[in-house]
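Quiz preparation item.
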């Protein structure tokens, strides 16, 4: 691949380490036009339909980091990896619970612009093989005149394939948003729509009841988690609104919603 080609239109993918039924409720709470599809064993992919990173000059990186952060602390309870690109750069951002996000960036020509430690942290949080997978990731952090930023993202996806990730045909990092949307629809992706607060709350409670974290959503642990989500979500929501940041506003709103739901669920089911 030509080292100067680089990805052109801004775009993004969200890879969630969970099946679609667990991803759907929190993704709907983002209130963004998204397509949801299965992406292999225990993986889902979210394809943004809109272009929120073009609003008020907000970067695609900032928007998808906000989304990934919100989803990672939601009921899905699994790591979320955002892959993003624009005309100048491409990169990844991993969100895992309340931990600080970790990311890595490449310039459009593939020049590494991140810290090696970030890639090792990413491998650890995604529970990759500490020897084989880390060795496979290492070339992504080294100079390579034959690899542009899109090649770097495809290389990352190839490593994650060892964990069961299998993106549907045509849903590849670096593709134009319209092509990603067409490929997702052709693969049978579900168009997520905002169901309204009542249905969203019911869906979220159903996901909690049926999900793997069901036995742990009551009692002191539930109250602690709900309180932490509210404590983190309120200032984040205000910060995002103050800066007109769609991604971080959505993250704050989702955290607040989950905090309220968690506390309400504990109270209702505790009696």
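Solution:
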């Amino acid at each position: 691949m030509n080292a100067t080609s680089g990805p052109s239109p801004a775009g993004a993918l969200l890879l969630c380490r969970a099946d679609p039924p667990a991803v759907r409720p929190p993704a709907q709470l983002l209130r963004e036009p998204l397509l949801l599809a299965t992406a292999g064993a225990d993986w889902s992919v979210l394809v943004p339909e809109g272009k929120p990173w073009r609003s008020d000059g907000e970067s695609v990186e900032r928007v998808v980091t906000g989304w990934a952060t919100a989803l990672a602390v939601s009921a899905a309870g699994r790591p979320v990896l955002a892959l993003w690109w624009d005309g100048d750069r491409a990169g990844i951002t991993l969100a895992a619970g309340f931990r600080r996000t970790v990311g890595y960036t490449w310039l459009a020509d593939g020049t590494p612009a991140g810290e090696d430690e970030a890639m090792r942290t990413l491998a650890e949080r995604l529970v990759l093989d500490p020897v084989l997978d880390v060795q496979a990731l290492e070339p992504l952090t080294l100079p390579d005149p034959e690899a542009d930023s899109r090649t770097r993202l495809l290389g990352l996806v190839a490593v994650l394939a060892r964990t069961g990730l299998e993106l549907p045909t045509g849903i590849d990092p670096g593709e134009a948003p319209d092509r990603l949307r067409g490929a997702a629809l052709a693969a049978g992706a579900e168009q997520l729509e905002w169901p309204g607060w009542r249905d969203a709350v019911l869906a979220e409670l159903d996901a909690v009841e049926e999900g793997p974290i069901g036995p742990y959503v009551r009692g002191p642990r539930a109250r602690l988690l709900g309180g932490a989500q509210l404590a983190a979500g309120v200032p984040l929501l205000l910060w995002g609104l103050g800066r007109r940041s769609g991604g971080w506003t959505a993250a704050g709103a989702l955290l607040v919603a989950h905090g309220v739901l968690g506390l309400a669920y504990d109270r209702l089911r505790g009696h």
